[in-house]
Amino acid sequence: MTKLTVNSGACGFFCMVTAEKGPDRKMFVRLESQCEMLKKLGGEIATLDTMAAAFTDFLNNPVYRAAAKHLKHAACPVPGGIIKAVEVEAGFCLARDVSIKFEE
Description:
By secondary structure, this protein is α+β, with helices and mostly antiparallel strands.
């Protein structure tokens, strides 16, 4: 099981993303957040095809397609975090922190 936390920034919401391998290329994803939009997103992507989530382009990716339906803010970092969790759980990449930092 792979877990990560995304701090979404100005909205003040955090999201705990959990990805767990299932049978037959399935990945089980759980989102825990106080954000109603993320709760709806989590309901739609609870089960993903691992290869589609990890290796499909932005326009056809099941995570980004579901995010387009449920999230009002295109800059929300949670969809990228979901894909990172799936990649790590599948063994496609190492667990390494990512960040966005504003410079003054």
